[in-house]
Structures
1.
Amino acid sequence: MTSFLTPVGSAPAAGKTASPGRFAAATSILEDAVPAGAGVGFKPDHLSAILDDPGSVGFLEVHAENYMGDGGPPHRTLERVRLDFPLSLHGVCMSIGGPKPLDEDHLARFAALCERYEPGLISEHLAWSTHEDMFLNDLLPLPYAAETLDHVCDHVDRMQEVTGRRMLLENPATYVLFDNSTMSETDFLAAIVARTGCGLLLDINNVFVSATNHGYSARDYLKAFPLAHVGEIHLAGHTEQEDDEGALLLIDSHNRPVADPVWTLYDEVIARTGPIPTLVEWDSDLPDWPVLRAEAESANAILRRHAPSAPKVRHATPA
Ligand SMILES: [Fe+2]
């Protein structure tokens, strides 16, 4: 476990009041909060290796949808690692960005996991993945405009109300832009934070992928990002392809080491914010445990280098 960094209160302890504003004001620190160090996405293939030699990995993150059955091996495995590690619960199918109300059954299962495993952080994506009765495998983007802002804020409110926790919303990796967007992505995210009191999950690989695909500056995007509300950072690998016209197209594939430009952006962000819980995602073409553990150690080296005695920008409450 990382010992050089103290836990942060980016995900306040559960309460039962329904007012969204309370999430902005809460300051409690979970006894087993996620530390402002490096964690990794947990894969059962790594179970014994993680328990034998966790290195400096300070927390694990799991996809909620992999644990929505009632029992069996997935829960036995998660119960075991939960004994040793703080947990971050990351949803990928809530369809927060869709126009329809959230699926209450799905939400109830997510909330039950919160009760059962007491994650220090919970998060979802600024994206949609359901339409009518269809469940899509992709996290699809949405236009950033007044109407979609209303939908997303309603859904964030509902997720926070049912779980009794402040959630983090993740910026997406995108491959298309919408002509009818009237706001930048960073302004859209800031507006969600202001209205709901949620926090943000800053995926820096997603920033780099989107910026490259759309031809804008990742650094400019990060300058505009509301960093004071970031409760977790994601790092991941991406792959390079060509689009139909031969231009470079990056895919958020989570199957490779974190790319050098993403490490550079991460270093620059942490220099500004101070340490923030940082998760290395690796979801396919899984490496042996020492490779993933080394990625976490690289993140921890940057976090250590920028660990001040007094934080610079830390999880301030939204205005
Ligand atoms: Fe991510």
2.
Amino acid sequence: MINKFLKALIILSRYKILKYLIIAVEKVASRFILLNKKSLYSNFLSVFQLFSSGQIYSEFRRKKFFFYQKTKVNHPLEKTIDEIHNQSYSFLGKISENDIKTGSNFFLSQNQIYNSHVPLGTEGGEKIPLDQFLNNENCNYGSFDIQTSLSLPKISEIIKNFNMREIAEKYLLTKNLEIYSVNTMLTKKSNTTSGVCNLHRDLDSMSSITFFIYWTNVTADNGSTLIYPGSHLFNQDKLFSNYASNSLNLKHIEGEKGSIFAVDTWAWHSGNKNIETNRLVTWVRFTACPANTYFTDENYKFKDDLKKINK
Ligand SMILES: [Fe+2]
């Protein structure tokens, strides 16, 4: 009940008049809330950011960046954390050929798939037979729900083996965090282009990080995400995509099958229209405060599955 209520409230806060009101309040509030030099998180901020138009996301990330610089200590993951702070993403390594085979066979042998980049909620689609998705020239993004992704035991092994929780803790500067989203996407060549191929930022939470598992080869000609490195620290500017869509600063996050990346998806990024062969990718997202997409994508429907992976 509370989940549905919050979902409705978040959607309502995106309506034009309310949105402008929130932007105005947020501009003033973020100055005060984030002035506190002693602590990074507060209960009030965690709730307030749920309705943010993005201003607080940028302010918080910048504050977190300075906290990190001040409190930095040597540890084995330092290079990775530095890279995420400075260029918005980091390559973590590769899983074995065997694991790649197990993962891709598992997803490609499913009977059904949602014909959208996330399964449910405001961005969700329809559940259709996988064959139909593969043969329909108008389908581009397909996705498998949280329960399906997590029923592949390899996912939790990969989360552990690549220290995803520890990286998230060190990047978000708290141990109080959880996985709020796991999504496996199948992308293919089609006659249509998804909205995620436009330059955008993921408005999930002010303190979040995403890990990607590439089950297939991902290159500039084959579906690799474009990212503007370091832009997770840029101020929120809704016109940014208008003048940066063709920027030479955009980089492809390319990787052979099996590659694992950590990405701060508050950085400006876009999907890739160029795709020759099917691309299969899983994302695992951690947050240190409530994420609005947990509600709008109806991830709460899988709260028991998420609870298990968060243990
Ligand atoms: Fe995105």
